[in-house]
Specification:
With about 190 residues, the protein is mostly helical. Helices cover about 65% and strands about 5% of the residues. Helix 2 runs antiparallel to helix 3, helix 2 packs parallel to helix 4 and helix 4 runs antiparallel to helix 5. The protein starts with a helix and ends with a strand.
């Protein structure tokens, strides 16, 4: 009678022992790895840069904040926080942080480049072009991205002056119900 009630339990225990790992965790990767309490913690600044490269800007911002808590507000951490805010479209915060980073370490071309991008996005084209010139000089012209940004900023400055004159000379005139014509003003 007792064996009749214990029969399902004995069967389950016997089948569990027949698995590839027996009663212990298998090495086939199904189980999560154990935590090593003496392991080395990852550098949050490096984690943040990897997350930025992966397009995970919110997570990168969190990692940069952890780096600030661990390392303090170094110019590199401040510039990283500014870059993450730039990627998230938070231009005011990005500008403040990047200005602070360039004030504390004026020899970092990446921070100057990102500040230039913020200024161009905010419509401060002339100041952005000057910032790109500084980044280009600090980098000795080695970065293709900084060179391209400088080139685009200078072209935008030239075109903005030209288009401002043209906007004053032309107006949009409606002809009929769905036809528009550009005519010079007199």
């Amino acid at each position: 009678m007792i064996l009749g009630r214990m029969w399902p339990l004995i069967l389950i225990v016997g089948l569990a022992a027949c698995g590839p790992g027996g009663f212990s965790a298998s090495d086939d990767g199904v189980f999560a790895p154990s935590v090593d309490p003496d392991g080395v913690q990852a550098d949050q600044l490096t984690v943040g840069h990897r997350l930025m490269a992966a397009g995970e800007y919110e997570l990168a911002l969190s990692a940069f904040r952890l780096a600030a808590a661990e390392q303090g507000l170094t110019p590199e951490v401040i510039a990283s926080l500014g870059s993450a805010n730039l990627a998230l479209g938070r231009l005011n915060q990005a500008e403040d942080l990047l200005r602070q980073a360039t004030d504390e370490d004026p020899e970092t071309p990446e921070a100057w480049n990102n500040l230039g991008v913020v200024l161009i996005e905010r419509g401060k084209t002339a100041e952005g072009a000057q910032v790109f010139r500084r980044a280009f000089a600090l980098d000795n012209g080695e970065s293709v991205a900084i060179r391209d940004n400088l080139r685009l900023a200078l072209a935008k400055m030239e075109n903005s002056q030209y288009s401002a004159l043209k906007e004053q000379d032309y107006k949009l005139v409606r002809r009929g119900s769905s036809e528009f014509l550009i005519r010079p003003t007199q």
